[in-house]
Specification:
The structure holds two protein chains of two kinds. Chain A is of the alpha/beta class. Chain A has helices at 54-61, 79-87, 105-114, 122-128, 144-156, 174-189, 201-207, 225-230, 250-254, 277-290, 305-313, and strands at 14-25, 28-39, 43-47, 69-74, 90-93, 162-166, 193-198, 210-215, 218-223, 236-242, 259-264, 269-274, 295-302. In chain A, the strands form three sheets. In chain A, strands 5-6-7-3-8-9 form a six-stranded mixed beta sheet, sandwiched between helices. Helices cover 63% and strands 6% of the residues of chain B. Chain B contains 14 helices and four strands. The chains are: A alpha/beta, B mainly alpha. Chain A binds chain B through residues 62-64, 84, 87-88, 90, 92, 94, 96-100, 102-103, 107-108, 110-122, 138, 154, 158-159, 190-191, and chain B through 1-2, 4, 13, 16-17, 19-23, 25-27, 29-30, 33-34, 37-38, 194, 197-199, 201-202, 204-208, 361.
């Protein structure tokens, strides 16, 4: 387990903290004793497959759900005591919200703007999310990426100190995702704190100072993306497949130079985590040739957060 | 705090603050905009009642004295009976072959059929008022033709005053029905739609006051209501001479009370429903009995005496009764206090209940 920040932090530096948070739905425990601390000015990513408890966690932090147990403190305030004051300090984007179809972009922002005591003007917001040209378009005529940018603009409308984003780029094309990332980078640049959930590893790499990997309601890893990848002890992954019918014991691969871990997808497909790709690959080829095992596939990539997740849980992140 | 903007922080704060509108005004405006941008909604609120008034006004227009249609079976003696009826005046004789009689009685081509003979036979439908009236008229004419003298000649005084026609009675009922429909739909649909799209959840995640949201639904409803009342009453007045005999402000007050009452019911119906389908079913469940019972197209006095106390406390009955007292009878607001009380009670109770039951997410 990597904690990222081991040094003691004063409470004014903490944007949000939760201790021992539990949430159950009937017999299902969605969040199972979660401890988390996010610092001011930080972009924190909550990663995990669908059903890991990311959305439940973020909604508890947003004050939309009550936890069954545990303590939550956001910007030094608590939901049971300071809900009204807290609401105006947060920006929230929910996963499934559909804004009113037949209001224009500017009208939508104007309504949201009216709820907050302070914040930028509608025109400034439109510039921020690059929707100026869509000012008077109905929401239903926007593309998926434009809708998400509007949704983020609605979250930025009260000049929040802390921004919650629940899978803001799911289903967007690469260009739209990049545009949204730029908006978030600008918010960070002005000192804002972000808590984002995602199941895109590249997004976490790109945006987040630290990430927490969630599985089955628990944090199973915590640290900077670099730390987590380094925790594998192997920066590279060799993926290969041998022709059907050849049986080689997994243990034998461990003996190859540089190999730290062996994982088998099925009878033919294997993954080797290695710290020394230049030694592992030639050795692997010799090893297979010596056993008359023909390669049917070979590839390598740098280890990612995806590999961290797979190593920790034995399952893929995205296809669940 | 970063100082990237052209204004120092304090000045910028002030400038920002002025940017935000009043949440209640903004919410009401959005609701109203959403409504007028929905062509179907506009049709049901404004065009439908006008078309309805028009169609019913034409179907039940006052045509003066109508001749009584009398069917005469084509057999020996038919000519004498036809002659007697025509001589008496006010009849239209329709000769029917014997095989046609049952059908003519059933489909209303002849409310009464005379079978010639000594004495003649009258065939008619006891359950239909029109049939009863035709039998009485035929009997009087034939008895007189056979030599029965009148005991006296009564003075006849048919009523032709405006205000007592069917259309005069119908228009307040249509107005009431419309206030019910748009009140329930306007509030209920908007809420469930927003809930289904998780927009309610998004709104609770802002510092918005929940009461502002609910109030905005009521206020935008008031805006559509005033247009709705003016369109229906204005149309009926211009094209059918339906006059409001009582004070207009009393009519306006009742319309507002009715809209608030049904708005409260709409809130209650929508307080838990998750889908449009569910809320549509609930709305129809609430509205259907009132369409039938509350005297929109025919007087609720047609229902048995035992049901009357129940019918009278229905909100639509209270609204229709009171609208008719103002519009048709020309009396003032003091004459409709009991009905106003019933409407207020329905609105108040359902509003309080829905605040307890309401689910934002």
């Amino acid at each position: 387990m990597y904690h990222g920040y081991n040094r003691a932090v004063s409470s004014s530096q903490v944007a949000l903290s939760c201790i021992g948070v539990v949430k159950r739905y009937g017999s299902v425990t969605a969040v199972n004793g979660l401890d988390l601390k996010v610092l001011r000015g930080e972009c924190f990513g909550l990663l995990g497959p669908n059903g890991a408890g990311k959305t439940t966690t973020i909604e508890i932090l947003e004050g939309l759900l009550a936890a069954d147990a545990g303590e939550v403190e956001v910007l030094g305030q608590r939901w049971d005591r300071d809900a009204t004051a807290l609401r105006s300090r947060l920006g929230i984007q929910l996963q499934e919200t559909q804004l009113a179809d037949k209001l224009t972009v500017a009208e939508t922002l104007r309504v949201f703007r009216s709820f907050y005591p302070r914040g930028p003007s509608v025109d400034v917001l439109l510039d921020t999310v690059e929707l100026g040209s869509k000012r008077d378009a109905w929401v239903k005529n926007l593309s998926g990426g434009q809708k998400q940018r509007l949704s983020v603009a609605c979250a930025l409308v009260g000049e929040p100190e802390l921004l919650f984003l629940d899978e803001p780029t799911t289903g967007l094309d690469p260009q739209s995702r990049r545009q949204l990332w730029e908006v978030l980078e600008r918010f960070r640049g002005n000192g804002g704190t972000i808590l984002i959930t995602t199941h895109y590893m590249d997004e976490a790499h790109e945006l987040c100072d630290r990430v927490g990997i969630m599985d089955q309601g628990k944090l199973i890893a915590l640290g900077t993306p670099r730390e987590l990848v380094a925790s594998l002890g192997a920066e590279h992954v060799v993926e290969f497949a041998v022709a059907e019918g050849v049986r080689i014991d997994d243990q034998l691969f461990t003996a190859l130079p540089g190999v730290r871990d062996v994982r088998r997808d099925d009878a033919a497909h294997l993954h080797l985590s290695t710290s020394e790709l230049h030694l592992t690959v030639p050795a692997l080829l010799d090893f297979l040739r010596a056993r008359d095992a023909a390669l049917s596939q070979l590839g390598t990539h740098s280890a990612t957060l995806e590999d961290v997740f797979v190593t920790l849980t034995g399952r893929q992140l995205r296809d669940e | 705090m970063n100082e990237s903007g052209p204004l120092p922080t304090v000045a910028r704060r002030r400038f920002y603050r002025r940017e935000g509108g009043n949440p209640l005004v903004e919410l009401t405006l959005s609701r109203f905009r959403e409504f007028v941008r929905e062509p179907e909604a506009v049709f049901w609120v404004f065009a439908f009642p006008v078309i309805m008034t028009c169609a019913l006004g034409i179907a039940f227009r006052s045509r003066g004295a109508e001749p009584v249609i009398a069917g005469v079976v084509e057999q020996p003696g038919a000519d004498e009976i036809a002659a007697a009826l025509e001589k008496s005046g006010g009849f239209k004789v329709r000769r029917l072959p014997p095989a046609e009689v049952d059908r003519a009685l059933r489909d209303g081509r002849a409310p009464v059929v005379i079978v010639p003979g000594t004495p003649p036979t009258y065939r008619y439908d006891e359950a239909r008022a029109e049939s009863q009236v035709a039998r009485l008229a035929v009997d009087a004419a034939l008895q007189r033709a056979a030599g029965r003298p009148d005991a006296f000649a009564p003075v006849q005084e048919p009523i032709r005053t405006v205000g007592s026609r069917y259309i005069d009675w119908l228009v307040p009922g249509l107005l009431g029905m419309n206030i019910m429909g748009t009140g329930l739909w306007g509030v209920g649909f908007a809420i469930v739609n927003a809930r289904a799209k998780k927009l309610l959840k998004r709104l609770v995640a802002t510092p918005m006051a929940k009461s502002d949201y609910l109030l905005s639904l009521v206020l935008s409803r008031m805006a559509t209501l005033s247009i709705e009342v003016i369109v229906i009453i204005g149309f009926a007045w211009i094209f059918f001479d339906v006059a409001v005999h009582g004070p207009l402000w009393a009519l306006a007050l009742l319309a507002i009370l009715g809209a608030l009452s049904f708005g409260g019911l709409g809130l209650l119906v929508a307080s838990r429903a998750k889908t449009i389908e569910a809320v549509s079913g609930l709305m129809n469940l609430v509205m259907l009995p009132m369409w039938v019972l509350s005297g929109v197209f025919f007087a609720s006095t047609n229902f048995p005496e035992a049901m009357q106390p129940f019918i009278h406390v229905l909100p639509l009955s209270a609204l229709n009764d009171s609208l008719r007292i103002i519009v048709n009878e020309g009396r003032g607001i003091d004459a409709v206090l009991p009905q106003a009380g019933i409407l207020a009670a329905w609105g108040g109770i359902s509003f309080v209940l829905s605040l307890k039951l309401f689910r934002w997410q």
